[in-house]
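so my prof wants the structure for this chain in the C-alpha cells format not the other one, which i didnt know existed until like an hour ago. anyway here's the sequence
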Amino acid sequence: MAEVAERSRTLIAIAREAIALSQRPSDGCEWHVDWLRERAASFVTLRIEGELRGCIGSIDAHRPLGDDVAHNAFAAAYRDHRFPPVDRDERTRLAVEVSVLSPRAPFEAPTEADALAALRPGIDGLYLEFGELHATFLPQVWESIPEPLDFLCELRRKAGLPTRFWHERVHLSRYTVEKYK
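here's what i got, hopefully its the right format
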C-alpha cells in the first residue's frame, strides 16, 4: 500500500510541476527511481470542480513513464484543443489524475454484437481504429457511459465515425489502467 501511495505522490508531483513550469518539458530527465525510467503509456486528466479541463495521453509506451507523464500533463493543460490553455489562477484549483496504461491487447470482434459481448464495463479502456480514424476511452469513461452499446457508439463518434458504424476492418484493443489522484 505504501508503494502505491508513493507512486501516486510522485506521479502527481511530476504532473503538477510540468503544469507549473508552463513550458514544454525536456526529454530524457534523470529519474530517481527505476519505475519512472521504464517505458510506459499514460494519460493525464485535469478537472476543476469536477468538470473536465483537459485530458491528453499516450496509448502506447514510447518513452520513460516520468517523461510521458510530464509531457502529457503539459499537453493536457496547454494543448488540449477542446479548452483554452490553463491560466495561472486555475493551476492551484486543478484536480490531477494520472492513468498508467497496460499494453493494449487486440481482440477479435467481427460484428458489433461480438464487440459488445467482449467488453468488460468498468475495467476495459477501449481503443478503436478504422483506417486513419482512431479514438480511445479510458476505463473511467464507464462511470459516465455505463452501457456497452452507448460506450461503443460514443467512441465511434469520437473517432469521427457514425455511431452505429461497423465494418470487418474495425480493429479494437483493450487495456486497463492504474489510476492515481
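also thought this was worth mentioning. The first helix runs from residue 2 to 21.
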